[in-house]
Fold this sequence. Notes:
single chain, mainly alpha, 13 helices, elongated, disordered N terminus
Amino acid sequence: MRTKGCIRRLGTAQFLELLLSLAESGxxxxxxxxxLEKRPETERLAEKIRKEMEDxxxxxxxxxxxxxxxxxxxxxxSAAEETGDIVPALSGIAEELREMDDDRKNLAAxxxxxxxxxxLSLTGGIFLAVRGIQYIKVIADLDGQEIIKNxxxxxxxxxxxxxxxxxxxxxxxKKYDFQYVFFRNLYxxxxxxxxxxxxxxxxxGEKPFTKKDIACVAGMLRGIxxxxxxxDVFAQSGRFDMFTTAWLSVTDGNGELVRGFEKxxxxxxxxxxxxxxxxxxxxxPALTAVCGIYVLLLAxxxxxxxxxxxxxxxx
Length: 315
């Protein structure tokens, strides 16, 4: 018999994938939740959903209560629940959670090597400053102030460049987040036959959106209320690409909003994935180059003079 301590509890992403697999096989979600409640690995999360729904909460509220990760998908889940078919939304969320987990693991793997080398180099620099400076002064015939100056110059480089590089990478990492989340939720609300003005009012309250994003949505909402075409409204916002305005021009003509929003949503999903993959490929060599320059400055300022002096003594 397995003891309670040996039970491996599943995380939210794994639980959602199990729930999705049952729902895709035709099992109603409430029944799937009760089935998962019988499994020790998923009992805690399934029980939490069941109790929330028994207390009068919706499935969307119950799922979003499981983890802060899922609160980002509240609009998407709520719209899907209105249609009575939550499977496509669960599938999209499960895939996105997998991508988020993969991104975190990949970024950690990319950053850890150059960061470890830099930490070791900084430790070596501190050791040289504390313990080795007196020996360097004697062997290399260098002034103590000059050694400190060389060590400081070498140390400033990674301390200044690493944060700037990571901030720039984070900005690029989130480049298409607004457009992606906007059209993802707009697509699922259009599937649920939510009116355009109502959909935009919901989007004004999206948690991931910044003040700049909300101002953009508010400006577009004013344009829709003035009776302007969607393609003109989105083009004037300046936040969307030509693919978006082209598809919206098509929907203005044929009225197929759902198909247009789906195409734009998939486009931004692809662009976001490609941008993050390109960033991962760039970040590791960039961080390694910063670390390499630091080691070079450290060697030029403190280590090479020592070997130069030793070479003169041998000659």
